[in-house]
Amino acid sequence: MVQGTVNWNTQLDKKWLQEYVDDWVAFYQKATEEGEVASYIPILAEANPNHLGIAIHGKNGMRICSGDVNTTFTIQSISKVISFMVACMERGVSYVLDRVDVEPTGEAFNSIMHLEMKSLNKPFNPFVNAGALTVTSMLEGKTSKEKLAPLLKLLEKIIGYRPKINQAVFKSENDTSARNRAIGYYLVETGFLESDLEVTLETYFKQCSIEVTVDDLARIGLILANDGEDPDSDEEIIPRQIARITKALMLTCGMYDASGKFATYVGIPAKSGVSGGIVAVAPPRVRNAPFPFIEGCGIGVFGPALESRGNSIAGMKLLKHIASQWDLSIF
Ligand code: DON
Predict the structure, then answer these.
(1) Can you tell me which atom of ligand 1 is nearest the CA of 256?
(2) Crossing angle, helix 240-253 and helix 79-91, to 10 degrees?
(3) Which residue spans within the chain are E strands per DSSP?
(4) Would you give per-residue pLDDT tens digits along the chain (331 residues)?
């Protein structure tokens, strides 16, 4: 275990940390062979399954990154975190939570079965597709352009530049969207959708097609770790209550039907996407121990080879290792 009476902020300590992370990434890169890239959206199948990259951002510009960090990828389901926060900022938390629950499903992210099997008075949570489509339908605006603008603006505030929408991924997703359309029609029938179905689906597919890097995900994680504030400027980017509810949802529902295992064995809020991204949030620890990033950090991982639930297989293993080495668990 990494230990000693160091404060991990000097250049020397940073060099040690870098060496550890490089070793861990090289080790877990082998685990990419145990997974498969998503293929239900044809363009995602073109990703290199052996890629693995990580960025870790802390206070005072502390940044460690390793592996395939320059590859851009689409944010996919991690966008559900952003759309949920924007909907809460636009409509108010109680408006949103009156219409989408906060319970894990234990089912696949795009499951239809649970919508009918339980006597549902609202979709289970904002991170399964039924809940995410409902949240997207709540965003202000009549067109997908109007609905997406505040999402892109919030992301720009967090990551420092305006992200692009990958049109090829949007098209590929839109062309193979039968299951999301089925969920959408069910939501129309049950009266959950607040916007036109086509506008909601277009907005949802475009929000999933926003391009990011591991550094961008780490920035999102860092702001959430700090309850919505930028730890260096103290500027409030996301209201505290919304940041906290979002973290609770990430912990309980962020890794889909692997959320319980991730909470148990890794112990930090996280959200995955099918292109292989994971954003993880390590809040500041009060323990007076010589661990790195004791004041909290955000972690972005990219590894497109997925396990059966749609989470990056090597990314999850790498996060589990780092969380145990650096005592990141919130429990
Ligand atoms: O099929 C969809 O709804 C996707 N575009 C987003 C799915 C996703 O990232 C699920 N995550 N693991």
Answers:
(1) 12
(2) 140
(3) 53-58, 63-67, 73-74, 211-212, 270-272, 277-282, 297-302
(4) 344 444 555 666 788 899 999 999 999 999 999 999 999 999 999 999 999 999 999 999 999 999 999 999 999 999 999 999 999 999 999 999 999 999 888 777 887 777 776 556 788 899 999 999 999 999 999 999 999 999 999 999 999 999 999 999 999 999 999 999 999 999 998 899 999 999 999 999 999 999 999 999 999 999 999 999 999 999 999 999 999 999 999 999 999 889 999 999 999 999 999 999 999 999 998 776 788 999 999 999 999 999 999 999 999 999 999 999 999 999 9
CA of 180 to the centre of ligand 1 (A): 10
- Residues having CB within 6 Å of any atom of ligand 1: 76-77, 109-110, 129, 173, 180, 208, 272-274, 310
Q: Which residue's CA is the nearest one to ligand 1's atom 7?
A: 77
| Residues involved in catalysis | 77, 80, 204, 256, 274
Residue that the structure tokens 């990056």 belong to: 312
- C-alpha 181 to ligand 1 mean position (Å): 13
Cα-to-centroid distance, 80 and ligand 1 (Å): 9
> Distance between CA atoms of 51 and 287, rounded to whole angstroms?
34
- Write down the pTM of the prediction: 0.95
Please identify, by atom number, the ligand 1 atom nearest to the C-alpha of residue 274.
9
